[in-house]
């Protein structure tokens, strides 16, 4: 009776009803400059967010330093580094939290379509579970560690993840949009340069990132250090995996040695971000060395507890 199949007719109707959309305006220096004036004061974030807050709780974006912004939720960090040639997002939050992240990017006057890349900390759903959604809304590729690459592509835990089996699988990002970087080798994206540092432990593919943001001649080195806590599924023993523990300690040593004016972490409270914002000084302690030392103490306690069992 019909000359066309129902799917073909629906596709034709959809095409007929939706006008072609113009491409998003490109990033520009004027938009980057305007965002500095649009960003909410950090006091708005501290007024609405508590330590170890809910992961998907909405929070206002604020400027960290220069053109680096916190665009995450109250409980999970996501950082935007803006540039005249394009922007870079570090982490996406959960699938639900990614909606807040994208809204915050827009509130600053930026367009998700101008994201040049998404960089990852560690390959768990609370930090990169929204990678698929962000990619769908921006087209941005995902840059991650060699160990985390298959996790992002498949949504499945790494076989060596201490928390393997604890989390619901993530929605995978199409493989052609996921690439592995080489830890230790700086990457330049849309004119912005970042150095990835291998800091395995919390997961096998965990990365920390270092870059510089400037306000005129006042330049600060910012480090987004991974969570690094020795948390695991029941029955997992770090002490049964000496090579993993050695890599864990090596990563902590690399982190401790970094130039690190401002320390930020995937869980804001892990680096006392709220306390620093209230005090008006994001350069306050802990810095990278103190943070790494505290994590190593936790690892040592965990190993001692395992030895006593």
From TrEMBL:
Keywords: Hydrolase, Signal. SUPFAM superfamilies: Metallo-hydrolase/oxidoreductase. It comes from the Bacteria. The keyword Secreted does not apply. One of its GO terms (molecular function) is hydrolase activity. The keyword Hydrolase applies. Residues 1-19 form the signal peptide. PROSITE patterns: PROKAR_LIPOPROTEIN. InterPro entries: Metallo-B-lactamas (IPR001279), NDM-1-like (IPR050855), RibonucZ/Hydroxyglut_hydro (IPR036866). SMART domains: Lactamase_B. Residues 75-267 form the Metallo-beta-lactamase domain. Gene3D superfamilies: Ribonuclease Z/Hydroxyacylglutathione hydrolase-like. PANTHER family: METALLO-BETA-LACTAMASE DOMAIN-CONTAINING, METALLO-BETA-LACTAMASE DOMAIN-CONTAINING PROTEIN. This is MBL fold metallo-hydrolase. The lineage of its organism: Bacteria, Pseudomonadati, Pseudomonadota, Alphaproteobacteria, Sphingomonadales.
């Amino acid at each position: 009776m019909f000359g066309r199949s129902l799917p073909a007719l629906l596709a034709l109707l959809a095409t007929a009803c939706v006008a072609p959309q113009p491409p998003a305006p490109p990033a520009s220096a004027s938009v980057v400059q305007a965002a500095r004036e649009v960003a909410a004061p950090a006091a708005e974030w501290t007024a609405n967010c508590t330590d170890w807050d809910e992961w998907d709780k909405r929070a206002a974006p604020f400027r960290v330093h220069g053109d680096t912004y916190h665009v995450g939720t109250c409980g999970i960090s996501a950082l935007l580094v803006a540039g005249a040639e394009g922007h870079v997002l570090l982490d996406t939050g959960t699938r639900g939290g990614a909606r807040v992240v994208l809204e915050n990017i827009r509130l600053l006057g930026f367009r998700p379509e101008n994201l040049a890349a998404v960089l990852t900390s560690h390959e768990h759903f609370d930090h990169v579970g929204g990678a698929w959604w962000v990619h769908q809304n921006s087209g941005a590729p995902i840059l991650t560690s060699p160990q985390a690459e298959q996790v992002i592509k498949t949504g499945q835990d790494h076989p060596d993840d201490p928390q393997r089996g604890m989390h619901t699988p993530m929605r995978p990002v199409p493989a052609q949009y996921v690439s592995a970087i080489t830890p230790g080798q700086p990457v330049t994206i849309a004119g912005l340069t970042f150095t990835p540092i291998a800091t395995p432990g919390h997961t096998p593919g965990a990365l920390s990132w270092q870059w510089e943001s400037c306000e005129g001649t006042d330049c600060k080195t910012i480090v987004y250090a991974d969570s690094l806590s020795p948390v695991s599924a029941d029955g997992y023993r770090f002490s049964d995996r000496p090579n993993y523990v050695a890599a864990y300690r090596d990563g902590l040593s690399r982190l401790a040695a970094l130039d690190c004016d401002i320390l930020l972490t995937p869980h804001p409270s892990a680096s006392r971000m709220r306390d620093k914002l209230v005090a008006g000084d994001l350069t306050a302690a802990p810095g990278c060395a103190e943070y790494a030392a505290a994590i190593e103490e936790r690892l040592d306690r965990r190993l001692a507890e395992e030895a006593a069992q």
